[in-house]
Amino acid sequence: MPTDGELARKSLQYRRNVLRWIKHAGAGHTGGSLSCVDILNVLYNRILRVSPATFTDPKRDRYIQSKGHSVEALFVVLADCGFFPESDLETLCGYQSAYVGHPTRHVTGVEQNTGALGHGLPLAVGTALASKLDDAGFRAFTLLGDGELAEGSNWEGALAGAHYKLDNLTVIIDCNTLQITGRTKDVMNHEPLAEKWAAFGWAVRTIDGHNLAAITAALEQPLEAGKPSCVIARTTKGKGVSFMEDVGKWHHGVPSADELARAYAELDGAIAQLSGGAA
Ligand SMILES: Cc1ncc(C[n+]2csc(CCOP(=O)(O)OP(=O)(O)O)c2C)c(N)n1
Ligand SMILES: [Mg+2]
Question: pTM for the full model?
Fold first, then answer.
């Protein structure tokens, strides 16, 4: 199990790589990828029982990234975990590349095609139910955006997850308060969010979505026997790069050469600080 310090360093490196590949591709969903890096880091390096060697094992844990537009974060983490060589990302968003701007099952490590919002939870409900029916013992996880909650299919999934008592299912909401056209509360308000999921019959925990220890604690076990788990991760869109943090226009966008240099300088400074402070 990697230490918190090792994971903190990985998160910074992942953020650097997200920006690197978005710049290389000339396109990408910058802010939402940066906001979910810490969640993916903990999932793949601490929680999910899946690896390149077990990716075809029917009993592997399943992760479905419903907010598929943040594919750059997923690709960077999958590459680091050895699902494919990072050099494959040279083709990111290229003609006929499997590494298009949303996840597809042509990429090793990707469980489901996503990108049209609102499908990850229904898929994860079916996946978790299959695990129960087959007595297979695996868990299913899905990551939703807070803006994505405007899709009605999520609320059908929320009903079904509780109805079938899917305590092997965990929904994580990347609650960064922004979506594509502005503040989530202005586009389609969903608060009070924790109360809504609890009313649907879910066990709910709200955490700091950039605190690696808190993410780990929320995901390592189902929150409550007999109920599906909902982890509301309070996050910052564009996390880790000061001029991208909580700025709506960075939902998507490619940094200029100057912006990339400034972002790298901030992230490298943070890595150096970690190294200096390492026990
Ligand atoms: C069904 C559907 N409608 C619209 C879109 C366009 N779209 C892409 S990202 C996005 C906003 C998503 O916001 P949120 O879920 O909060 O994601 P994050 O802030 O994490 O990027 C929208 C509306 C889409 N991908 N799918
Ligand atoms: Mg959002």
Answer: 0.98
